[in-house]
Amino acid sequence: MVEFYYQNGLLQGAGLKLRAVCGRAGVSGHKVEGDGATPLGRLELLRVMYRADRIRPPACVVPVEPIGKFDGWCDDVADAAYNRPVSLPYPARHEALWRADGVYDVIGVLGWNLAPVVPGRGSAIFLHVAAADLAPTAGCVALELRDLLAVLAAGITAVEVRG
Fold this sequence. Notes:
The protein has 163 residues and is mostly beta strands. It has one domain (2-161). Helices cover 6% and strands 36% of the residues. Strands 1, 2, 3, 6, 7, 11, 12, 13 and 14 form a 9-stranded mixed beta sheet that branches. The protein has a 3-stranded antiparallel beta sheet with strand order 9-8-10, with no helix packed on it. The protein has a two-stranded parallel sheet with strand order 4-5. It is globular, with a radius of gyration of 15 Å. The relative contact order is 0.30. The model has no long low-confidence stretch (mean pLDDT 98).
């Protein structure tokens, strides 16, 4: 097990110290859907998805699968598939995982609000590629692509988000 921790704009672990960003509202011990915060606590890395048309499968210790053009993630608190992967088109509010901007070229699904899913407690908390300007996320942890690939190759199994 290789755990990393995020604090004050850095993701650290396995001898790496990398610039990272979190939610635009910072970190929160009381995560709520749409608040822009990254949840405090230990978030297990469950699996990794990637854009096979853009990069090779990343080296990592968790299951890896390609993202399809019709893959999405439900973020509608009133829907039965809330905080679950869905196939597009999907009638409820959702995020498309196949994006033009490259932010989801690699997605690490973090274990937030999954077992059991609690409506409104936050959805789609990922470890993913940062925007080119390293802008804050909607609640995820993000790194530049080369750094994200390095973290995955180092064997990351969890991220502890600290205040």
